Amino acid sequence: MKALPIVAAIIGVAAMAVLVGYFGAGAVWHSLEAIGWAGFAAICAIHLGLIAVMGLAWRVLLPGVHPLKPIWARLMRDSGAEALPLSQVGGYVLGARALSLFGVSAPLSAASTIVDVTLEFFAQLLYTALGLALLVRLEPETRAAAPVLIGLLVAGVAAAGFVLVQRHGFAVLDRIAGELGRGWAERTAASAAKLHAALDGIYRRPLRLWLSSTLHLLCWIVSASEVWIALRLAGEPLSIAAVLAIESLLYAIRTVAFLVPQSVGVQEGAYILLGASFGLTPDMALALSLMKRGRDLAIGLPAIAAWQAIESHRLFRPRHRPGVTKPVSDPPSGG
């Protein structure tokens, strides 16, 4: 199974190179130049703001934790998934690790990661439903509506099942905890009972769950502004409704292709197919995809470098030091 993401990534890179070559590297570069460095900087700034809000959505599940801790952990989660050859699951592991490095107990780091990912997925389903509604309104003759609707229903059932597993599937949760703990902290998976208690404590706060989900949904919607701005700067403006339809369906496709690191090749092909429905040229579609990849590297690589510095400091510092901050304990089970 470990070889599958590697093979998928190689195929994806080859597919991306073929697409750029077929539609013209010069045309794609011209589209990127039209967006410009100022536009790229603005898009990076917007994305950093969204990462901060998504970190706050995670923080909602962690009462008593300093907001900067989950914001940093969210940055590491996204950086690992988008700037390193990792799958989305690898990014989740890195985010949980980053949170635990700053004093949050290992079971709570793992539990809050699981719940936060679940809530974000539910928000994404609503985002995809919004995109589907806009697609049907803007392109009534589209043939994509039926398969997308079926996919939404299947994903909704799967998401509900995952919540049931979190609440009742202890054996499965033990395996998830093992994945989150393997290779960096035995304490993460040492006590399944602590993980279950942490999950139960989070799920006993329904208002916090709703607030976190709402923040995630807002972030999904606002994220479309990056592409909307880029297209306006490039002189190929689309309506915000069209951009929302493209972006929501794009990320639905990316979710299906979660085994492919960074959805390389998949994202490029999806942009071309979805953009064609709204008159977006293939070279501009590829430019948008490459712009996003550049954004992820510009944000992710410095974050990864900082994380490596922190890990190196921990590796070489004395093991026993007075005055070490006590980890944040699991939340009480009461609401």
Features:
335 residues; mainly alpha; 13 helices
Write the layout of secondary structure elements.
Elements: H1 3-23, H2 25-59, H3 68-83, H4 88-101, H5 106-138, H6 145-168, H7 170-181, H8 186-190, H9 192-203, H10 206-233, H11 240-256, H12 266-276, H13 282-316
Helix pairs in contact: 2-3, 2-10, 2-13, 3-4, 3-13, 4-5, 5-6, 5-9, 5-10, 5-11, 10-11, 11-12, 12-13
Could you characterize what this model shows?
The longest helix has 35 residues, at 25-59. This protein is 79% helix and 0% strand. It is globular and about 55 Å long. The protein has a domain at 33-252. The chain has 335 residues and is an all-alpha fold.
Spans with pLDDT under 50 lasting ≥5 residues? none
Give a short account of the largest sheet: none
Output the radius of gyration: 21 Å
**Main structural class:** mainly alpha
N- to C-terminal distance: 41 Å
Overall pLDDT: 82
What series of H and E elements makes up the topology?
HHHHHHHHHHHHH
Proportion of residues in β-strands: under 5%
Number of strands: 0
Percent range for helical residues? over 70%
Please give the oligomerization state of what you see: single chain
Shape, per Cα inertia axes:
globular
> How many helices in DSSP terms?
13
Write a concise synopsis of the structure shown.
By secondary structure, the protein is mostly helical. The protein is 79% helix and 0% strand.
